[in-house]
Amino acid sequence: MVDNQNILTPEKDYVTLNLGPTHPATHGIFQNILKMDGEIVVSAEPTIGYIHRAFEKLAEHRPYNQIAPITDRMNYCSAPINNMGWHMTVEKLIGCEVPKRAQYMRVIIMELARIADHIICDSVIGVDTGALSGFLYIFQERELIYEIFEEVCGARLTTNTGRIGGMERDFSPVAWAKLEKFVKEFPAKLKEFESLLVRNRIFMDRTINVGPISAEMALAYGFTGPNLRAAGVDYDVRVMNPYSSYEDFQFDIPVGTNGDTYDRFMVRLEEMWQSLSIIQQAMKNMPDGPIYADVPEFYLPPKEDVYSKMEALIYQFKIVMGEMDVPKGEVYHAVEGGNGELGFYLVSDGGRTPFRLHLRRPCFIYYQAYPEMIKGGMLSDAILTMSSMNVIAGELDA
Amino acid sequence: MIAFLQIEWLEEVGTQLRERFGEQVLAIEQAYDFPVIVVEKKAILEVLGFLKNDPSMGYTFLTTLCGMHMPEHKGQEFAIVYQLHNMQLNRRLRIKIFMSENDLNVPSATSLWPTANWMERQEYDFFGFNFVGHPDLRRILNMDEMNYHPMRKQYPLEDLGRHDKDDSMFGR
Fold it and tell me: Which of A284, A327, B38, B115 is in Cβ range 3.0-4.6 Å of A222 for a Cys bridge?
C-alpha cells in the first residue's frame, strides 16, 4: 500500500543547493549546502577541511626554523605577516630582543603584505558586484608589492622571509628603489580604485546592508581584524599589544558602524592608506645598526664565517640539522594578520621540536558565523558576504 | 634577554577566584608575560561563566581554545587551554584544565560563546574530547570516516610502514 500521508500534508518546498566545493564564485575551496526558498537563503551548512594539511601535527615534528615555511601556507595572501608572527613567537620563547632596524624592516614588509591582502579582498568584492575594472587596475599594484618581496627575499607568494632573531639580509638598493617608487605611485592608483567604487551607486546598492553583523554578535563569534572593526569595535593587536615597534608609529584604526559588506570594504580601504603611512614613517625613521640579534644558536652565521671559523661551522650545522636548544615554556604571541588576530600558542618541553603548537587562525574562527550572516538574504548576497569576509582557504583549513 | 614584568592584577583576580571557587582553583602563576590559572575540570564552566559575566571581571572574548596530549603526565594526560581577553582593560588570561585519558568528558563552552562551537569541534577531531552539551559534535577538518584522533602523541606523522624515508640518523 502506498503511503500518501506526506503528499497530503502541504509543506513548503525548499530547494537544496550545493554551492561548492569548487565554485568559481567562492574563491577557494568552500562547500555550503544551502536551503533555498526561491532566491532567499533559508539556512546554510558549511563544510570545511578540503585542504587540511595538519599543520599543527606537522609542526610537532619539525625544528623551529623549519616551521616558518608552513606558516606561509596559511594566509597565503599575506604570508610575510605569518612568517614574522612565528619568528616573534620563538623570539619571545628564547628571550631575544631584535634590533630596531630589523623591527622597522619587518614593519615595512608586514604593512606591504597587509596592503596586498586588502587589495585582493577589496577588488574581489568589486568583481563579485560586477565591477571588473577596479580589480584589473589595482592588481597591478599587488604585482609591484610582490616584486618588492622578490627583491627582499627571493620569493613572491610564499615568502619565508625573516629569520628567528632578525632579517636574513638587508634591503638591497634595488629593493629600496622599488619601495620608494611604490610609495610614490601607489596613492594615485588607490585613489583611482576608490573613485571607481566608493560612491558608485550600483556598488553601494549591492553592498550596503548586505551580510551585516552586530558588534555583540561579532564579539561572541570571535571576530577580529577588519571584520570586527567594521562592526564598530576598535580592536587592533598592533595597538593593544604592540609588537615589532608598532608603538613608534602614528596611525589610525578605522571603524565601521553597521558591520555590513560596505563597511568591511571601507575599513580595508582606509587601512591601506594607514599602512602606506606606516611604511612612509618607517622608511623615514629607519634606524641604522645590525639587522639581527646575537643569537648564534638560531641565526645562521654569514657564509664566509662558516668557511673560515669553527664556531660558525658548528652553529651552521646545528641550525640546519635542527639541533637548537630551546628553553622549556609556553608562550602566546599574536599579530594583526590580514584578516584578524593571528595567534601562535607554543608549548616547548625543551626538545628540538615544539611540544604543541596551536594556531589561532582568524578565518577559521569567524567563518562559523557565515550561515548566520547570510540567512534571509539573496544567493548573490551570500557570495558577496563570503568574499567580503576575506576567508582564505589555506588558513581556514590549516 | 627580555625580562617580563610581574602582572600586578593577577593577584587580585586570583583572590577573587579563590574566594568564590575555593579549592577548585588549583594554581595561579605567570608563564612569560601571560597569567595562567589552573582549575578543576568540573568547575570549568562556572569559572568561565564567572569570568565572562561578572561585571568585575569582563573577560568577554574567547581568543583560543585548544587541547593538549601529554602521555608522560600520568593521570592527567589531556589538557584543555582556554585563553580569554578582557578587551576593555586589555587583560588576557589563560585557564587550564587537566584530565585523565579515561574521562575525556568536558562541559562545552558553547552556551557562553557561540564561537566555541567550531573550536571544540576541532579539538574533538584532533584529540577526541567529548564536549558534553555541544550541539553538533562532529569532525570538522578530517573526514568523518577517520577512526582515530590524529593529534594524540601515539600517532606518528607518517605511516610507520614506510622504509623509503629513514630519518633516524638525525632524530626526527
Answer: B115
The answer to whether the CB of B84 falls within 8 A of the CB of B75 is: no
DSSP B131: E
Q: Compute the distance between CA of residue B141 and CA of residue A398 in angstroms, rounded to an integer.
A: 9
Q: Going by C-beta distance under 8 Å and a sequence separation of 6 or more, which residues neighbour residue A102?
A: A166, A167, A290, A291, A292, A293
Q: Which residues pair with A44 in a beta bridge?
A: A34
Ramachandran bin of A67, using left for φ above 0, alpha for ψ from -120 to 50, beta for the remaining angles: alpha
C-alpha span between A71 and A161 (Å, rounded): 11
Query: Phi and psi for B40 in degrees, rounded to 5?
Result: -65, 145
In chain A, what are the domains?
A: 13-46 (no CATH), 47-397 (1.10.645.10)
- Contact between chains at B113 and A365 (C-beta distance less than 8 A): no
Over its length of 172 residues, how does chain B's per-residue pLDDT go in tens digits? 566 778 888 888 888 889 998 888 898 988 888 899 999 999 999 999 999 999 888 899 999 999 999 999 888 999 999 999 999 999 999 999 999 999 999 999 999 999 999 999 999 999 999 999 999 999 999 988 888 899 999 888 765 555 666 666 655 4
Give the residue from A44, A77, A37 showing the smallest Cα distance to A383: A44
Q: Tell me which chain A residues have a C-beta less than 8 angstroms from the C-beta of B172.
A: 61-63, 322, 352-353
**Entry pTM:** 0.92
What is the helix (H) or strand (E) element at residue B94, kind and residue range?
strand B91-99
**What are the chain A neighbours of B79 within 8 Å (beta carbons)?**
none
- ipTM for the predicted complex comes to 0.90
B113 touching A, CB under 8 A? yes
Shortest distance, CA B89 to any CA of chain A (angstroms): 10
Only one residue has cell 578582557, namely: B86
